[in-house]
Amino acid sequence: MPLLRDFFIALSHNKTLERFLTGTRLGRKISRRFVAGETLEELINVVEKLEKEGIFTTVAYLGEHYHAREPALKSTEEYIRLAEALVPHREFSEISLKLTQLGLEIDRDFTYDNLKRIAEKAKELGLYINVDVEESRLLEDTMWIVKKMNEEGYPVGTVIQAYLYRAEEILEDLARYRMNIRLVKGAYKEPPDVAYQKKRDVDENFRKLAVKMLKMADRIYPEFATHDDRIIDFVMKNADEMGVPEDKYEFQMLYGVRLGLQRRVKRTHRLRLYVPYGTHWYPYFMRRLAERPANVWFVLRGLFG
Ligand SMILES: Cc1cc2nc3c(=O)[nH]c(=O)nc-3n(C[C@H](O)[C@H](O)[C@H](O)COP(=O)(O)OP(=O)(O)OC[C@H]3O[C@@H](n4cnc5c(N)ncnc54)[C@H](O)[C@@H]3O)c2cc1C
């Protein structure tokens, strides 16, 4: 499987396939498994449908690693439009964004200014923002921005990656801010001096951090973002034993991933799906195939079935 994973990761950088898939109706149809659509209107339709089913959402406008100011400014404008469109759904929906989309690889202060514009709008409209965490080389700047936003009273939370050796230290630092904290295993390829390399070690750290977050549930709002059913059961059992009420934490998964598990979790607990939209869906879509190459068959079946 690692070979197939690397194959799909390599394909996620392939511009020819990207042009082909994003330029055809067939490609756009395939992408719908994991992506709500290319427009804000298509996104809102999906948010509404999920809301009717009692499913919460965190929505993201696709795009990352911008090295020019123009696309970063365009993303900022789109997030402001998105915040306005989410107002009727604000009880169920929040925003997720990546700082490299707002210019983090260009300039930290420029990124901060962009996020602040979005956060001002979100605060005015009563919406929450989650800042996704990307490669570890960007961690210091990301945390600096997230903490500054909280010190200034903006509704901004973030993510902790359990694969990082520093994850527990980061959790203790962030817990001072009473924010929403999403715990994930971690999606990037990190070196052995920064992150656990073995799945077993990452899973063990996830469990340890999850218990710690449940203990902090009077100060932070813990969000457990995983499709790992054994870890989900572990969290539910611990929360139950510790007497943490079900409205004091939630589970999160990706739109289109492990639908059976989503249904099971939703029956007893709050479930929030990460729902992306936008024309720049190709790398995100290929990463979902890389996580589980068997997804290719779901996609093909959806096409011809
Ligand atoms: C809501 C949300 C937000 C996230 N935000 C971030 C972030 O900000 N930063 C970051 O680094 N990472 C983020 N991630 C990704 C995360 O770090 C993992 O890479 C990803 O969730 C896969 O790990 P897992 O916990 O599901 O466990 P795994 O051990 O990878 O998977 C558990 C089970 O789920 C199945 N599964 C996993 N992915 C898929 C898939 N695509 N299709 C079908 N089955 C699948 C596996 O086959 C396995 O059976 C986020 C994930 C979610 C759900």
Can you describe what's shown?
The protein has one domain: Alpha-Beta Barrel (TIM Barrel), CATH 3.20.20.220. Strands 1-2-3-4-5-6-7-8 form an eight-stranded parallel β-barrel, surrounded by six helices. The chain is globular and about 50 Å long. 51% of the residues lie in helices and 14% in strands. With 305 residues, it is an alpha/beta fold. It has 13 helices and eight strands. Helix 3 crosses helix 13 and helix 5 runs parallel beside helix 6. The structure holds flavin-adenine dinucleotide. The site of flavin-adenine dinucleotide (FAD) has 23 residues, from strand 4, strand 7 and helix 12.
Descriptors:
alpha/beta, 305 residues, eight-stranded parallel β-barrel, 8 strands, binds flavin-adenine dinucleotide, TIM Barrel, single chain
